[in-house]
Write a structure and sequence with these properties.
This protein has about 220 residues and is mainly α. The chain is built from ten helices and no strands. It is extended and about 75 Å long.
Length: about 220
């Protein structure tokens, strides 16, 4: 029963609002000692657990890098790049990103772009700059619309592009489920049938981006 002391430590630590990481480490240490392990074995168990799940900590490396780049003017450089591109518009920029996101997801590169590493520091500021180039001044509501559509573009591109990739989890899940019911379908067939859906998603969201651009121009003209 002594090995259950770790649960009591977690409950007490959370009730007393101690640092969660310290509480969990203290709980694991107490449980290991109660189970008869020595300190070296407990530390080795900590190291093995970290090594087995080290990919989880990658995000903690990416976020500081993005923050450091933003601190040194990443968003400002993205805006100035759009200012130098004469033909760049809000609709064209986000449609181009949608195509790029779908193409990368279709070949399995689902983690290359994303909200934290691409949309916030690059795509959203560039979209705002493209919108400002066609409008004298954006209202706060319009800026929020641009940011929302930039994030939505990433979502649509990823969601409808990744199903084209053969080894994506959703295709493997469908294959395994249908195999259980006696329907043997090759993953290639799932991928091929995902292409029309991806094309439809591209056209529909591209139309939405075009309508957003026209709506903002009308609002500018009526202001």
């Amino acid at each position: 029963m002594l090995v259950l002391i770790g649960i009591l430590i977690i409950i007490a630590g959370f009730l007393l609002r101690f640092n969660p990481l310290l509480v969990i480490m203290a709980s694991a240490l107490a449980t290991g000692l109660a189970a008869g392990l020595d300190i070296a074995a407990i530390i080795a168990a900590f190291g093995k657990a970290f090594n087995d799940t080290r990919y989880v900590s990658i995000i903690w490396i990416v976020l500081p890098v993005i923050g450091l780049l933003e601190a040194y003017g990443l968003q400002q450089h993205a805006r100035s790049l759009i200012d130098r591109m004469k033909g760049a518009t809000l609709g064209r920029l986000l449609t181009g990103y949608l195509l790029l996101r779908q193409a990368m997801a279709a070949v399995g590169l689902t983690s290359v772009a994303g909200h934290a590493q691409t949309v916030r520091p690059l795509v959203a500021p560039m979209a705002e700059a493209a919108a400002e180039a066609r409008n004298d001044a954006l209202s706060e509501s319009q800026r929020e619309d641009v940011k929302a559509f930039a994030a939505a573009t990433d979502n649509v591109g990823l969601f409808f592009g990744e199903d084209i990739f053969l080894a994506i989890g959703s295709i493997l899940l469908m294959k395994g489920l249908l195999d259980g019911y006696g329907y043997e379908i090759e993953p290639l067939h799932f991928s091929l049938w995902a292409i029309p859906t991806a094309i439809a998603a591209f056209l529909i969201h591209g139309l939405r981006l075009r309508r957003l651009e026209k709506r903002m121009r009308k609002q500018e003209a009526s202001a």
